[in-house]
Structures are given as structure tokens and as C-alpha cells.
Write a structure and sequence with these properties.
seven-stranded mixed beta sheet, alpha/beta, about 500 residues, disordered N terminus
């Protein structure tokens, strides 16, 4: 009995030892049930969290900001915030104008302005009749495009010289009937009409439809000296600008009543202190672009000693139909291709160019050179490409109008449409880039985004926008639309937000 008990005790000890050496299975199972899963890293969620944090900027708390980021490769939305809300887009409207122009006119389209003779040449060099300038919407006769109107006139004058013409016993008539007579877009601000960024729109344009004035100081207390750099004779000038001492600020403003070619200058200009001070330069819109072109041409003729006995007129003032089919074309000027024109328009945000391009699209597509006809084509283009025009209210081609509205989502999808279009290269090359001439010249320089951003900017009072393409660290191209309205702080705050978003997107990697 003692032997049996001893054996049982030994067996129990052995079993307990074996059990003690086995892993605690149930304990492991229970522990596994309560262990939190290790979260997997999500670069997209990290990106979204970072952009959320940027949009919480306290300085922009009273403003209204929308952002939409779309991948060109997959079509997926990487980030959206207020993307379906309507914003005033400012110059982002030029993206819609650009798309319509490339879609209908094509990147190789050129404008042609022609000079016609309506009369006959007599012995002695007298031309009895009228000389007619017929416009077709060319916006390029300006410094912005590197084309001086006098260089165009010089070619035409050589053509007159070749015919032996020394005197024109008739009128210089400028015909801008290719467009309608509406000079300003719906919703433009009346107090902008004397500003160089909102000149009247016409099928004939020179010097961006502005005269340039240089204001020079004279002596203290005396009227300043006013020089008309170009556009002499096109306006009636009244100046109340007084010269002040060198320690006073120079403040000169131009005032022009709507419908008038009388320009009044007000303010003061300080004497130079030591070194010669540069004059104050003002570009002031004229009232009647066609009359302006004919006036400039007459001045060029007279400078070349070709006398003009008649008047300068517009075709409307002439009042009689002009039968162009029976008139000889003496000379013509052909613009650079549309791809080059759009580059200036978008990089420099050239408003007059955008309006002339939009009206040209309307004229060529429907026969009516109006804002409304251009907008109709934009809407039809969007619908053909699967983009709803219900997210767009478009009143002009440049974005000057406060009536324009669109969503960040529509802008991003428009960029995606253009990326997949046959005109991708022309469109992308038209956009501004950091560090290069244009609206992004001083922005994002020295950052990771410097070589990875191509975009269009937009600015109005209390409005700041940016839209374009950002290339990520992986080489993925993103469509980006950032729109801020109701700004109560300096626009630089909104621009800083745009720059930070672009920098974050440029550093994004899916790996």
C-alpha cells in the first residue's frame, strides 16, 4: 500500500512538472482576444489629416475655403473640403475660356487683321477714298505679347508707299463689327473702368486699349509735367497733379467718366531726393478701341509724311455697309498661334485677351461675337465631356465679374479633362510656374514644390484662388483647386495656405 501511494505521488509530481513546462494555451488565447490590432500606415489618410490641419488656420476662420484634389492617373479624389460649394473663381475663369478655345479654335488658330482700300489712286500720289481697318479679335498688339502697334503700321505704310500714295483724300475707318458692341462684361465693377486690367473689349485693340502716361515732377508747388508715352491724341487730358517736396509720398490716380475720353489726373508727385526719381507711370483705358486704332494709324501715317485729309471714324460712325468682297486687301497682319497667346493670357492673367478669345469662340461657333455666345460654347463643351454645367455660372472670360460662380470640384474635373485631351501639352505649358515670369514668379521658390507646380492664380478683392497641377514625390500628377472667398485678412494669408497645400502635395508618396 505504501508502495502504491508513493508511485501515485511521483506520478502526480511528474504530471505537474510536465504541465508546468507547457505554454499557457488558454491564457494566450484570452490575451490574443484583448490585444489591439496594429494599425496599418495610410499615406492618403495622413495627407488628408495634414490638409485638414492646414485648413484650420485661425486667420482664415471667417473666410470660406474649398479644396479639391484629384489624381490624373486613377481619377480618385484624394481630398475634398467644401468641394461642391459655389465660389467666386476670379481668374480661374480663364481655365474655362482656355479649354473652349483649344477645343473649338485649336492651338494653331491665328487672328488676321486686314487693311482695305476703298477708292482709286490718282496721279501725283493722291488716294481718293477711304482706308479701312477690319479687326477680327486679335489681342496681341501690345507689349504683353511683344508686338508694338507701330511695327504693324510700318508694314502697312510700306504697302502704301509701294503704290506711291502720299495723300489720303478720305477717311481712316476702323471696323470692329466682328464682335458685338458690348464693351464690358456683366457684373464688372464700375469703379474698375479706369483701371488698366479692365479696358473695353473690342474686335480691334492696341496697347491693351490703354494710353500710357508718365508723370514727372517740376518744381515744388507747381503742376507736374505729363508725358503721353503712347496714345497721344486719343484722349483729352486734364491734370491737377502738383509737385511736392522730396519727403512727401507720390500719389497719382486717374479718373475717367464712363463713356468719356477725358482723363483727369489727381494727386501729387514728389521731387527726387539726390538720384533721379523714376516718373509715375499710369496706363489708362480709352473709351472707344476702334477709334483709338484708327487714330494711332493716322498718327503713324502723318509721322511718315502721308497726309490724311479726312477724319478717323469707326464703321458704326461711317454708317454705310462695307462690301469687303469687292475691295482689294492692301495688307494684313497675322497673329502668333493661339498656343502662344494662351500662354501670355494664363501666365500673366491678361484680362482683355481672355475676353477677346471668349468672344472669338462665340463668333466662330455661332456667328455672334458676344460674351453670351462664348459662354454657350463653354457649357456645351462641358456637357460633351461629361461635366455638369450646373456647377458653373459664367458671365465673362477673364473672371473680372463678381457674377461668376463655380465649384472646386468642377475646376478639378476640368483640369482632369484637359489632362486627358489632345491639347494637354499646350494647356499645361500655358500655366504659370514658380520662379518664372508670371503670377507665380515669387512663390514657392526654393521649396520642393518649385519644379512640381503649374497653375493659374485668381485674385479679386476678398477673393484668392489657385488651380493647376502638382507632381508628387512618386511622379503622380494631381489636379488641385483651392478657392477662398470672403477674405477679411490680407490676401497673403490665403496665398500662404495655397503654397503650403502645394508643398504638402509635392511631398506626398503612396509608398
Amino acid at each position: 500500500m505504501a508502495i502504491i501511494l508513493t508511485s501515485f505521488i511521483v506520478s502526480c509530481v511528474t504530471l505537474s512538472t510536465v504541465l508546468a513546462q507547457q505554454p499557457p494555451i488558454q491564457r494566450r488565447i484570452d490575451s490574443a482576444r484583448h490585444r489591439e490590432p496594429v494599425p496599418q500606415r495610410s499615406p492618403i489618410r495622413e495627407l488628408q489629416a495634414d490638409l485638414d490641419a492646414l485648413l484650420k488656420n485661425r486667420e482664415l476662420a471667417a473666410a470660406y475655403t474649398g479644396v479639391c484634389v484629384l489624381s490624373t492617373e486613377t481619377g480618385e479624389f484624394l481630398y475634398r473640403s467644401n468641394e461642391g460649394k459655389a465660389f467666386v473663381p476670379a481668374s480661374l475663369m480663364k481655365l474655362f475660356t482656355t479649354a473652349a478655345a483649344l477645343d473649338f479654335l485649336g492651338p494653331d488658330f491665328r487672328f488676321t487683321t486686314r487693311l482695305y482700300l476703298d477708292g482709286r489712286i490718282r496721279q501725283g500720289g493722291d488716294f481718293e477714298g477711304n482706308i479701312i481697318i477690319r479687326g477680327s479679335g486679335d489681342p496681341t498688339w501690345s507689349e504683353s505679347f511683344g508686338i508694338h502697334p507701330d511695327s504693324v503700321f510700318a508694314v502697312w505704310i510700306r504697302a502704301l508707299d509701294s503704290l506711291g500714295i502720299t495723300t489720303i483724300k478720305g477717311n481712316i475707318i476702323a471696323d470692329d463689327g466682328y464682335f458685338d458692341a458690348t464693351r464690358y462684361g456683366p457684373g464688372w465693377m464700375w469703379d474698375d473702368f479706369a483701371k488698366p486690367y479692365s479696358p473695353p473689349v473690342s474686335a480691334l485693340a492696341a496697347y491693351d486699349n490703354c494710353v500710357r502716361l508718365a508723370v514727372h515732377p517740376s518744381t515744388t508747388g507747381q503742376p507736374a509735367r505729363i508725358e503721353q508715352v503712347y496714345g497721344s491724341g486719343a484722349i483729352r487730358l486734364v491734370s491737377d497733379v502738383i509737385t511736392t517736396s522730396h519727403d512727401q509720398p507720390s500719389e497719382v490716380v486717374a479718373v475717367r467718366e464712363f463713356g468719356s475720353n477725358t482723363v483727369e489726373l489727381r494727386g501729387q508727385i514728389a521731387l527726387p531726393n539726390g538720384n533721379q526719381r523714376e516718373p509715375v507711370i499710369l496706363d489708362v483705358p480709352i473709351d472707344n478701341p476702334a477709334l483709338y486704332v484708327s487714330t494711332l494709324f493716322r498718327s503713324a501715317l502723318e509721322h511718315h509724311r502721308i497726309r490724311v485729309r479726312g477724319n478717323v471714324l469707326t464703321a458704326t460712325e461711317w454708317g454705310e455697309p462695307i462690301a469687303y468682297s469687292r475691295l482689294p486687301i492692301l495688307a494684313e497682319f497675322t497673329s502668333p498661334p493661339l498656343r502662344d497667346i494662351l500662354t501670355v493670357m494664363n501666365r500673366m492673367s491678361h484680362n482683355l485677351c481672355a475676353e477677346m478669345v471668349l468672344k472669338t469662340v462665340g463668333k466662330e461657333s455661332s456667328g455672334t461675337g458676344s460674351f453670351a455666345a462664348g459662354v454657350d460654347y463653354v457649357r456645351s463643351m462641358l456637357q460633351r465631356n461629361g461635366l455638369t454645367s450646373e456647377e458653373l455660372v459664367m458671365s465673362d472670360g477673364s473672371g473680372l465679374s463678381r457674377l461668376n460662380l463655380c465649384t472646386p470640384s468642377l475646376v478639378a474635373r476640368l483640369l482632369w479633362m484637359l489632362w486627358r485631351s489632345p491639347w494637354r501639352a499646350e494647356f499645361v505649358s500655358s500655366l504659370a510656374r514658380p520662379g518664372e515670369p508670371g503670377t507665380l514668379r515669387t512663390r514657392l521658390v526654393g521649396t520642393l514644390a518649385e519644379k512640381n507646380v503649374a497653375a493659374k492664380t485668381g485674385t479679386l478683392d476678398n477673393v484668392s484662388t489657385l488651380a493647376g497641377y502638382v507632381t508628387t514625390r512618386d511622379g503622380e500628377v494631381l489636379c488641385v483647386a483651392i478657392m477662398t472667398n470672403h477674405l477679411l485678412v490680407p490676401e497673403t494669408v490665403a496665398r500662404n495656405l495655397q503654397d503650403l497645400i502645394c508643398m504638402r502635395l509635392a511631398s506626398f508618396s503612396r509608398r
